[in-house]
Amino acid sequence: MRTYDLSPLYRATVGFDRMTDLLDRVMTQDVGTSTYPPYNIEKTGEDAYRISVAVAGFIEAELTVEQREAELIVAARKAKDDTSHTYLHRGIATRAFEKRFQLADHVRVTGASHEHGMLHIELMREVPEALKPRQIAITSAGPRALDAEAVNAA
């Protein structure tokens, strides 16, 4: 795989640190990223989203959901199994994982639930009032009084 050095961009840009970090992360990411566990991302409303992660074989105590700035981290670690089982076939993967999702600006986690082997994480985009578009009223200036000296000079 080809590698690119993006360091000259860092010297020539101001205020684009997040974008250059994202580019750097994408360029250095392993090509064979893990698809385990499978997940869905769905839009449930105008500014509402849900990430559903298939976590069959895990209980709530073994799952963690954490938001760090603009990153959502979902992790699971199986507790030590005290009983010894003899499996004839073991098709349900219960290996530990850590899945990271990059969140857009002003998106925060509002809740998480675990049911029927699925972990559902609810997200909400809340744009601050100061950043929302606002309508500016246009007023008429009214008739202007003519300046007699300016008219005579012309």
List its salient traits.
154 residues; alpha+beta; Immunoglobulin-like; four-stranded antiparallel beta sheet; three-stranded antiparallel beta sheet; 3 helices; 7 strands; 16% helix; elongated
Structure in words:
- The chain is 16% helix and 31% strand.
- The protein is built from 3 helices and 7 strands.
- Strand 6 and strand 7 (118-125) form a beta hairpin.
SSE topology:
Layout: H1 7-12, H2 17-28, E1 39-43, E2 48-54, E3 63-68, E4 71-76, E5 97-102, E6 107-115, E7 118-125, H3 148-153
Antiparallel strand pairs: 1-2, 2-7, 3-4, 4-5, 6-7
Summarize the structure.
This protein is an alpha+beta fold. The protein folds into two domains: 1-33, no CATH class; 34-81 and 92-129, Sandwich (Immunoglobulin-like), CATH 2.60.40.790.
Total strands: 7
Low-pLDDT windows of residues: none
Q: Topology as H/E string?
A: HHEEEEEEEH
Annotated CATH architecture of the largest domain: Sandwich
> What does the main sheet amount to?
4 strands, antiparallel
Distance between the termini: 73 Å
CATH class of the largest domain: Mainly Beta
Helix content: 10-25%
The tally of structural domains comes to: 2
Summing up helix and strand content along with how strands pair, one would put the structural category as alpha+beta
Strand % is 25-35%
Mean pLDDT: 82
Going across the biggest sheet, name each strand in turn.
1-2-7-6
